[in-house]
Specification:
Elements: E1 7-9, E2 31-38, H1 39-44, E3 55-60, H2 65-71, E4 80-86, H3 91-100, E5 106-111, E6 113-115, E7 118-119, E8 135-139, E9 157-161, H4 170-173, E10 181-185, E11 193-196, E12 206-210, E13 217-220, E14 230-234, E15 254-258
Parallel strand pairs: 1-2, 2-3, 3-4, 4-5, 5-8, 8-9, 9-10, 10-12, 11-13, 12-14, 14-15
Antiparallel strand pairs: 6-7
Helix pairs in contact: 2-3
Pfam families: LRR_14
Keywords: Repeat
Protein name: NB-ARC domain disease resistance protein
């Protein structure tokens, strides 16, 4: 009766109900949406047979995670994928999966929370990154900045949260030619300074820097962020001064600043 179904949306609450046992019969299904869908249940329900699937979100990697991730390699048409509950030991299998996803456009990876505010490491080492990837969101600890991210030539939007990076990520990102939106939020960076260098981020239009408790200075060289239109700063309690060079952002249209010191000294647009 539902063999021609193309979209199945199970997002009826914040918890996921049982996966339909006959999901494998929905051969034309293109979009499967839910909250914390169990990958174990999806495998048992025949997720690997849905070769037309383009959207799979959001799936939690539970028991037997590595074997379950390998099951997703059959879904070669995926455009959008959201995975949560990722552990360090999943890194190799997940990297292999993503290397095979040649049509992937949007990816969200969230690591498992061990205790409050302490997340597992996202350990991805991509050899041939998805060439069509436009939107990337990483929620979880990164031991170092992933070397494969700057190779994503079509990446338009990047969000890093809870990464706990200690090395300034700006120097790795500023030469990305397609990047339009960058978010560094919620303890994504634990260092004290961010430096935007001359000539960097020539196409970036939106910049969000939020919830970085250790950050005490932002330096914007003249010639950096040349076409930035929207800049948001919030929840940075130790930012000791207005970002140096903010007056050079001539294209800026929206400046949102709250919960930072010296708010009254920021430019009024």
């Amino acid at each position: 009766m539902l063999q021609n179904l193309e979209t199945l949306d199970l997002r009826v609450s914040n918890s996921f109900y049982e996966t339909p046992n006959d999901i494998s019969k929905l051969r034309k299904l293109r979009h499967l949406l839910g909250y914390n869908m169990s990958l174990f249940q999806l495998k048992n329900a025949g997720i690997g047979g849905l070769e037309s699937l383009q959207t799979l979100s959001e799936v939690i990697i539970d028991k037997d995670g590595i074997e379950l991730i390998r099951e997703l390699e059959k879904l070669r048409q995926l455009r959008k994928l959201s995975l949560v509950g990722v552990r360090r030991e999943h890194g190799s299998a997940l990297s292999s999966l993503l290397d095979k996803m040649r049509h992937l456009e949007k990816l969200r990876v969230g690591s498992k929370s061990r205790i409050q505010f302490d997340y597992e490491v996202i350990d991805l080492h991509l050899v041939s990154s998805p060439p069509m990837l436009r939107n990337l969101r990483l929620h979880g600890r990164l031991e170092k900045f992933p070397e494969w991210i700057p190779n994503l030539q079509n990446l338009v939007e990047l969000l890093l949260t809870r990464s706990q990076l200690t090395d300034d990520p700006i120097k790795y990102l500023e030469n990305m030619q397609s990047l339009l939106s960058l978010s560094i939020i919620d303890n994504a960076y634990e260092g004290e300074s961010l430096h935007f260098h001359d000539g960097g981020f020539q196409k970036l239009k939106e910049l969000y820097i939020k919830e970085l408790p250790n950050l005490n200075s932002i330096i914007i060289d003249k010639g950096a962020l040349h076409v930035l239109k929207k800049f948001e700063l919030s929840s940075i309690p130790n930012l000791k001064e207005v970002p140096t060079g903010i007056q050079n952002l001539e294209k800026l249209e929206i400046l949102n600043v709250w919960d930072v010191p010296l708010v009254e000294f920021y430019p009024k647009l």
